Structure formats: C-alpha cells, structure tokens
C-alpha cells in the first residue's frame, strides 16, 4: 500500500491503482498527504482548491470532497483518521505510506550513516530515496503556492539528497557510477557548484585530468554568463588542487585560503522558512545584479519580525559571493542606548577593515573618503547596516560604500527617501506564515511533545502572529516547563505574550522591543497608538481612528502616517489600516496603564457612536423607505461616514462586518447597552443580503440581552424579530416561529402596534413555509390593515406580497397575480428597489408554474438587474434558479446551465444551502438532457446530500431522478 505525491497523486493497494476521484478531490488529498499528521487550515485548503475564494464563500462545499475521500480510503482499507478539528482538516496515517515522507525518513537515516562514515549504508538508503522521485511533485496542485512548494521540495529535499548520494559514491571510489548519475543532475541544475565540483573530482580520480579541467573551464564560463559572477571559492580551490597535483605528480594539500573574512554576528541556529525573501535577496544581489554596480537593498518591517536574522542568514549563506569580506554594523536607531551616528559607524567600520585608529581622519568628510577608498580597493564586499533609523541616518555610509560594496540595510522605517531619491530597492519583511511558525516551534520544542499534541502546537503557532521573537519566547517557555502539556501552556500564554517580562534582556521581550518603536513617536501619534488598543478589530478606517481620538481628520491622518512609517500600523487599502495582534495587545496594555479611565470611556463611546451613526447612514442609503432604528443623541466629536451610492454603502458593510459585530460585544461589556442593541438592529437587513452567519446571530443575542437590561420592551421585540428572521433564513421555521410569537407578545405588552404587526407578519410567513396555508391569509390581511392605518406603504407591500405568494401556493394564479401587481405598484411608488426585485422574482415563479414562459423569463431578467443594483446575492440566487428552470423548459440548455451554475456559486458564497441545492437540481436536469450522465449524477448527488442535511422533502424528487439515472443504460 503506497501513496505517491512525488508526481501525480496516486494510491496503489496490492500493486493495483485506486481511483481517487476528480481533480479537486485529488488536489485535496495531495494537500493532506503533504501535511500528513498535521492540521491544515480550511483557509489554506480553500486557497489551493478554489483560488481567490474565501472559506466563508466555500463553506458547505468542502465537506463533499472530504466525505468522498473518507469513503475511498475506507473502501481501499487504508488505516487512517481524516477529521475536522477547529477550522482545519487533519489526515492521520503512517507517514511511511507516503513516498515523500518515506523519502525524508530515509534521507535522515542516510545522513546519520554518513556522519558515522558508513557510506555503504548511506549509498543504499539515498539511492532508494532518490528513486522515489518519479515526476514533478504535487502535480495535482496548480496554484502559485504549489509551484513555490515544488521548488522548495526540489531545492531543499531532492538536490541535497543527490549531493549526499554522489558524495558517498565518491567516498566509496565508485566514480563511474557517480558520473552516470551526475549527467542528468547537472542537466537539471547547470550552475550547481556542488554537482560541478563532484563531476570534476570524479573525472580527475578516474585519471581524466584533461576532461576535469576542461569541464571546469566550461562551467566557469557558464556561471559567468548566467550569474555574472565567478564560481565560488570551494570549486575554484578544488580546481587549483587538481592543477597542482598534475604539475607536481604528488597529492597537494587542500587550499582553504579563499574563505572571505566575515564580521557577521552569530545567526539563529534554527532559522526557518523565508524562502521567498531569501530568493528575493538573491534576485537583487546576484541573479539580476549589474556586474559593474553593487546593489543596495533595504529590509523593512515591524519590530520583532526577524529582519536582522534574515539579513545575517542570507549574508552567511552567500559568503562566497563576497570575497572582499562581510561587515556588520548595528546603528541602534531603535534600542536601549543612543543611536550610532553615521560618523561613528564609519570609524568602527574602518577599524574592522584594519585601519589603525591613528590613521582614521578626524574630519567626517575625509573619513568618508578614506572609507570609500579602502572599500574600493577590496574585491566585492557586503556591508550589513542593521537597525537604521531613517534615510539620512544611512546615506553617508551608502555614499562611502560607493559602487563596489553591496549594502544590505534593515529598518523599522520604510526608508521612503532612499527608495525615491537614491533608487534603493526595498523589501518588506512580513510575519511568518502559519506553516513556517509551526515548523520553527516544532524545532524548538522537539518532535515527541509536538506529536503528542498537534492541535495545541497549532494554537501556540497562532498566538505568535508569525513573529519570530514571539515564537522564540513561546519555545523558551515550553522548554522550561517540561512538566506541562502544550494545551495547558497555550491557555496560559494566550493574551500574555506581550506582558511577559521574565528576562534579563529587554531585547528578549516583546514589550521591550515594541517600546523602542513606541518611544520614538510624537505625542499625538503615541496617544493614537494607545487608543487603537480600544478598537476591537484588527483593521480600521481613518474615520474610525478620528472617532477614537476625537480629533481633526488632518491631525489624525498625520499620526496614522507616522505609525505606518515605523510599521506599528500597516496600510491595507485606501484610508484603511491593520494592526498586528500582538501590537494590538501592546497598545491595549499601554491604554490601561497610561490613559485615565474617563478618557478611555469617552473614546469607547465615540467609537460606538461612529459605527452606529455610519450604520444608520448605510441603512438610509440602502433602505430609504424604512424607518430609522430609534436614535441616540448625536456626538459632536464624531463625524460618521456618508454615502452617495449603494456601491459605497455595501463596500463599507463588507469591510466593517467584523468590526460592527465586535463593537456590539464590547459595547455590551462596558455598559453601552443602547449601542449594543441598536448596531445589530441597524445593519440586520444589510447583512441579510450577503447571507446571515453565526457571528451575527451571536451579536443579535447580545443586543437582545442589552435591550432587556435597559427594560426597553420595543427594542426587545425588535431584536426578537431580527433573531427569528435569521432562523427563518436558515429554514429553521419552528425556531423562528417561537421567536416571532415571543416578539408579538412583547410588542403587545409594550403597546407598540407597528412592532406587533411586523411580528405577526413574520409569524404568518413561518406558518406559510411550514405549509399551514389556512391561517396565513387572515394574519397577513390584519397586518396590511395595521400598516395602512399607520401610513406605512413599506409594511403594506410586505403583507400584500405574502398574500400573493400564499395564493400562488394554493394554485389560485389569478388572485396571486392581482396581489403581486398591487405589491409591485406600491414598491415602485416608494422606490423600494430591493422589494421590487423580490416581487419580480416571485412573479417569475408564478408565470413559470402557469406556463407563461416568456413572461416568466422577462420578469426574472428584470429581477436580476435589480438584485445586482441592490447587491442582494440571496435573492439573485433565487431569481437565477427560476430563470434556469424557464430556460430548461423552453429548451435553451446552454443558458439554463449558465444560470444554474451562477446560482450555485451565490448559494455557496451566502451559505444558503437550500437555494444551492435547488440550483443543483436544475443543473442536473440540464446535464441529463444533454447526455452528460456523470455531470447529472454529480449535481443530483450533491443536491440530495444538502436536502437531506436540511431534512427537506424536496430531496425526494431529486433522489427519484437519480435512481432512474443509475438504473438506466447507455443505450437510452
């Protein structure tokens, strides 16, 4: 039994291939096999299988390929456990069953054998390991990430194993076999110096001196042409040894004098990941460098992100590229003590270059000229300037470096001046990926503890936010607590990483490292940074920052710009910013310590006012016919965002969704109960258009509790109605029914006639969906009368629409049509765009059932135009499904398939499983009619699965169609 991912993903049992399903299914299995025994985030899987889509959009779709994989593995007899755990999937099986993991295990054993000089065993293990590579790895994954991962596997796994194999062959004097294997290896990696040196040595040891030296000449020419630089000192030394041996006729000692001098600090012993950044530095300094002009590159990023470690690692591993030497200077712009001036830095550098103290000029300009002359006299040199403050801080040193000395800078600032004026290339160092963080922690903690608690390891990696410093702190804490489990430590560390100060070195604490950036801020920027700790979400707009600080927009924008310049805040769009989780925690600690309680309270009220007032403007833009949610007094220090069109309003809702929910929770915790119920009540219908989710249901529950605490019975009734509407939208009609009944009772107790009518309207609609048609018309007519008396045309239209829908279900098409037309007329009079689309869609359904297909098609197309304008994806999915049925009925199969496919996409993105299943049912009919039996089976199988999950009887008809399809023959 064997899985392969070093090529096309396959499973062989007893030598026979096992069918693994369609492309997405094989791609899913590839991801799980690559990470066998480790949790893979749903977000990661979605990005690889549905590139560009979010996990929220795909929710409800991923379970199908997972379920089918479970079935395939079970039928094949593969001992495994494929489970969903905390937003991730994990496949547990013996890693030895997967060729890639078996390869790595064999290489580890071979390297152990080589370290013990057992080259016979090493050769055997490495030969078997390399033979496992039978194609392009991860062939079934076709994303950019997969391409990068393939490159990492080849360069990081296969090539080192091939190096070791050839080395063992040379140790065993199997020179001919080494040459045979080296041929295709050099073809694949023509500038690899290790392979080239091994070939040269093998030729020489076989007595082929001329071939060995000729090969070196050709290789040197190729490296110069392709890389613009000489081959490294190791292969040049090997070539010199061969020449010496030939001339003297006796073995010559190994020449190690070509190693360049290095004044680099000791690098991290467990440096992990960063392949993309290392490659970027290679591209800047080596691959795309001008041979006549040295390069200058600036690494910038937030504190603790690992800029220095990256610079030292890259410089150390590329030492042979700088035979003139490598020199490191910490300019200390951020840290304990004063920054090192450019003048003092030049003095220190001249000392490292061997210039005696009495020969260093006192005049700064002469000192710069001296440094330039000394560097110019050496062969290519690398200067690493760490912890630079701003462009002016480093510019004198760059001028001294001239054109022969490459310079690599690191800074917390963006060094915009160097980029714009001096043409310096800048590279941002972002936090590590979750995968890289997990690997680094695993190396620090050790495999046994990690393998015992993989889920806890995943949580610990998440706590770090991808900051190497945070990972080192976590790793150290875990290492010193050998008695504690990882889950226990993860619980202890959650929310405490920044405040941990149990170190004798400020540079080893997050608070210390962050404080060096915070301490350099202006007073206004420092106060704004503190107040950002009160914002509940990671991202925010400049307008929200204005509200927090209560200041003028111009001043706030200046402070935001200052924070982004030193990477305490990251710009993520026009007037939008994001704060790293650990910096957010640090800001919150500063707020608690430095902001008086009354100022914290004022800032929170202003923030809640901003979100509530802006949400009210969104509601007025999208639903101008609806009444405002009862207002709170306006705050003079808050300027809410205003909107001139539906597009802007919807964009704001999408961007601020998480913040609106988080602010609701925070408002309730701090006693701002008026805000806590009003915010979710205000955005309820706006959120409905993109599909309700669990987080919003939680926010409504918080709002309901706040309304109860205030004793505000009308607010309580309104929140009950909103919660009932979510359950109704999810087809939980019995639960919705209970909330609507309670809302009616509460509204009666409050003496609020209009809320009573709204609750009764929704109560009737729940009865309608439950098939209890006998009671609903009277209930709707009563609500219509209440709305008519109160002058609410908006409410009347809702009631009339439902009466029409009831008559449609009863088969009385004439009455249904009359009520629908009355509804449409009112909604046009009050310019209720979304309502018009809803009515047109249901008119399309009516005409379809009536057999008036042209009318049905026309009304659905008009409905779709309106749904697009109102951004109502839920109703658009419904209109598309009706339109697909119409096109299918009249024989326009291509159009029917297109509309059904789009409806399925919208059903997935809005998490509306029922509409998704209905569209799948239509698509299945289209596929069957066009002769695509497999396509029909796939669509109907998914539809039946969803209908069954929803306990809907609509699945019975589809199941019957599927049964007929499965029992029919190809001769039909």
Give the helix/strand layout:
Elements lengths: L1 E3 L5 E4 L2 E2 L5 H12 L5 E2 H8 L5 H4 L4 H13 L5 E4 L3 E5 L6 H17 L3 H13 L12 H28 L3 H14 L4 H13 L3 H19 L5 H16 L13 E2 L11 H13 L8 E5 L6 H11 L8 E5 L11 H11 L11 H14 L3 E8 L2 H11 L3 E7 L4 H6 L3 E4 L5 H12 L1 H6 L1 H10 L4 H12 L6 H8 L16 H9 L4 H10 L6 E3 H8 L3 H13 L4 E4 L2 E3 L2 H14 L2 H26 L23 H24 L3 H16 L5 H17 L2 H17 L3 H18 L2 H17 L6 H15 L2 H18 L2 H17 L3 H18 L2 H18 L2 H17 L3 H17 L3 H17 L3 H17 L5 H13 L5
Parallel strand pairs: 7-9, 8-11, 8-12, 9-10, 10-11
Antiparallel strand pairs: 1-2, 2-3, 4-6, 5-6, 13-15, 14-15
Helix pairs in contact: 1-4, 5-6, 5-7, 6-7, 7-8, 7-9, 8-9, 9-10, 9-11, 10-11, 14-15, 14-16, 15-16, 18-20, 18-21, 20-22, 24-26, 24-27, 25-26, 25-28, 28-29, 28-30, 29-30, 29-31, 30-31, 30-32, 31-32, 32-33, 32-34, 33-34, 34-35, 34-36, 35-36, 36-37, 36-38, 37-38, 38-39, 38-40, 39-40, 40-41, ...
- Mean pLDDT, to the nearest integer, reads 86
Strand order of the largest sheet: 7-9-10-11-8-12
- Please describe the biggest sheet, giving its number of strands, its sense, and whether it closes into a barrel: 6 strands, parallel
Which superfamily, in CATH terms, is the homologous superfamily of the largest domain? Winged helix-like DNA-binding domain superfamily/Winged helix DNA-binding domain
Taking all Cα atoms into account, the compactness measure Rg is: 34 Å
**N- to C-terminal distance:** 40 Å
How helical, in percent, are the residues? 55-70%
Shape-level CATH architecture of the largest domain = Orthogonal Bundle
Q: Would you tell me which CATH topology of the largest domain applies?
A: Arc Repressor Mutant, subunit A
Secondary structural class: alpha/beta
Runs with pLDDT <50, length 5+?
Answer: 250-259
Helical element count?
44
């Amino acid at each position: 039994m064997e899985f392969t991912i070093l090529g096309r993903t396959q499973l062989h049992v007893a030598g026979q291939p096992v069918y693994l399903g369609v492309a997405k299914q094989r791609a899913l299995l590839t991801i799980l096999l690559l990470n066998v025994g480790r949790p893979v985030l749903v977000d990661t899987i979605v990005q690889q299988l549905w590139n560009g889509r979010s996990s929220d959009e795909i929710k409800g779709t991923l379970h199908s390929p997972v379920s089918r994989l479970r079935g395939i593995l079970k039928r094949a007899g593969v001992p495994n456990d494929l489970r969903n755990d905390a937003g991730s999937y994990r496949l547990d099986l013996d890693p030895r069953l997967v060729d890639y993991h078996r390869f790595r295990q064999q290489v580890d054993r071979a390297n152990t054998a080589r370290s013990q000089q057992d080259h016979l065993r090493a050769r055997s293990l490495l030969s078997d390991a390399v033979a496992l590579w039978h194609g392009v790895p991860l062939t079934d994954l076709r994303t950019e990430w997969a391409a990068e991962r393939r490159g990492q596997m080849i360069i990081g796994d296969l090539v080192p194993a091939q190096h070791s194999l050839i080395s063992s062959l040379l140790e065993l004097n199997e020179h001919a076999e080494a040459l045979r294997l080296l041929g295709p290896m050099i073809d694949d990696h023509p500038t690899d110096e290790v392979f080239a040196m091994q070939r040269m040595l093998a030729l020489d040891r076989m007595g082929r001196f001329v071939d060995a030296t000729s090969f070196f000449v050709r290789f040197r020419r190729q490296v110069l042409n392709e890389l613009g630089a000489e081959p490294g000192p190791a292969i040049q030394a090997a070539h010199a040894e061969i020449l010496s041996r030939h001339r003297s006729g006796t073995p010559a000692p190994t020449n190690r004098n070509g190693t360049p001098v290095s004044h680099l600090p000791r690098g991290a012993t467990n440096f992990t990941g960063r392949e993309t950044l290392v490659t970027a530095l290679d591209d800047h300094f080596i691959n795309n460098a001008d041979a006549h002009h040295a390069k200058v590159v600036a690494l910038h990023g937030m504190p603790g992100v690992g800029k220095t470690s990256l610079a030292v690692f890259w410089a150390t591993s590329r030492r042979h590229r700088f035979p003139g030497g490598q020199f490191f200077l910490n300019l200390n712009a951020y840290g304990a003590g004063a920054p090192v001036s450019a003048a003092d830095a030049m003095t220190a550098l001249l000392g490292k270059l061997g210039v005696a103290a009495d020969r260093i000029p006192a005049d700064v300009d002469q000192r710069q000229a001296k440094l330039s002359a000394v560097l110019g006299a050496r062969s290519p040199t690398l200067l690493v300037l760490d912890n630079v403050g701003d462009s002016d801080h480093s510019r004198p040193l760059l001028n001294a470096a001239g054109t022969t000395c490459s310079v690599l800078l690191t800074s917390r600032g963006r060094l915009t001046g160097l980029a714009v004026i001096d043409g310096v290339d800048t590279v941002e160092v972002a936090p590590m990926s979750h995968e890289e963080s997990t690997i680094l922690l695993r190396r620090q903690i050790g495999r046994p503890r990690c393998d015992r608690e993989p889920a806890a390891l995943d949580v610990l990696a998440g706590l770090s936010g991808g900051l190497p410093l945070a990972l080192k702190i976590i790793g150290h804490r875990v290492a010193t607590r050998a008695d504690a489990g990882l889950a226990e430590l993860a619980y202890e560390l959650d929310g405490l990483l920044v405040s941990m100060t149990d170190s004798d070195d400020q540079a080893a604490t997050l608070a210390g490292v962050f404080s060096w950036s915070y301490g350099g801020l202006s007073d206004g920027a420092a106060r704004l940074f503190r107040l950002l700790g009160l914002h509940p979400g990671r991202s925010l707009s400049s307008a929200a920052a204005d509200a927090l600080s209560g200041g003028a927009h111009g001043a706030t924008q200046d402070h935001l710009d200052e924070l982004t310049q030193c990477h305490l805040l990251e710009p993520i769009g026009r007037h939008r910013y994001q704060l790293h989780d650990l910096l957010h925690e640090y800001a919150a600690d500063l707020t608690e310590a430095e902001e008086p309680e009354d100022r914290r309270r004022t800032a929170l009220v202003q923030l809640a006012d901003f979100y509530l007032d802006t949400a009210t403007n969104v509601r007025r833009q999208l639903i101008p016919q609806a009444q405002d949610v009862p207002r709170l007094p306006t705050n003079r220090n808050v300027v809410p965002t205003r909107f001139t069109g539906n597009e802007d309003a919807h964009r704001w809702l999408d961007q601020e969704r998480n913040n609106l929910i988080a602010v609701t929770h925070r408002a309730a915790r701090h006693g701002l109960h008026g805000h806590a119920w009003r915010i979710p009540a205000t955005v309820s219908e706006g959120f409905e258009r993109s599909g309700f989710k669990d987080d919003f249901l939680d926010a409504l529950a918080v709002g309901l509790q706040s309304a109860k605490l205030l004793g505000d019975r009308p607010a309580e009734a309104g929140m009950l109605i909103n919660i009932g509407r979510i359950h109704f939208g999810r087809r939980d009609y019995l639960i919705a029914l209970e909330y609507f009944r309670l809302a009616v009772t509460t509204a009666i107790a409050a003496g609020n006639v209009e809320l009573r009518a709204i609750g009764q309207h929704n109560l009737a609609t729940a009865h309608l969906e439950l098939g209890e048609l006998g009671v609903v018309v009277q209930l709707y007519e009563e609500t219509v009368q209440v709305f008519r008396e109160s002058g609410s045309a908006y409410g009347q239209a809702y009631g009339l629409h439902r009466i029409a829908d009831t008559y449609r279900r009863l088969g009385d098409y004439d009455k249904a049509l009359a009520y629908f037309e009355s509804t449409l007329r009112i909604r046009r009079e009050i310019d209720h765009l979304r309502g018009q689309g809803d009515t047109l869609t249901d008119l399309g359904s009516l005409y379809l059932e009536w057999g008036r297909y042209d009318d049905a098609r026309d009304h659905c197309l008009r409905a779709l135009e309106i749904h697009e304008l109102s951004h109502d994806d839920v109703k658009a999915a419904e209109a598309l499904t009706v339109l697909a049925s119409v096109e299918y009925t009249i024989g326009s199969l291509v159009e029917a398939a297109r509309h059904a496919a789009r409806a399925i996409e919208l059903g997935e993105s809005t998490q509306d499983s029922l509409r998704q299943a209905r569209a799948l049912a239509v698509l299945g009919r289209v596929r069957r009619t066009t002769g695509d039996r497999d396509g029909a089976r796939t669509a109907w199988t998914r539809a039946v699965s969803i209908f069954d999950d929803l306990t809907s009887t609509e699945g019975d008809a589809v199941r019957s169609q599927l049964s007929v399809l499965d029992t029919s023959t190809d001769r039909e």
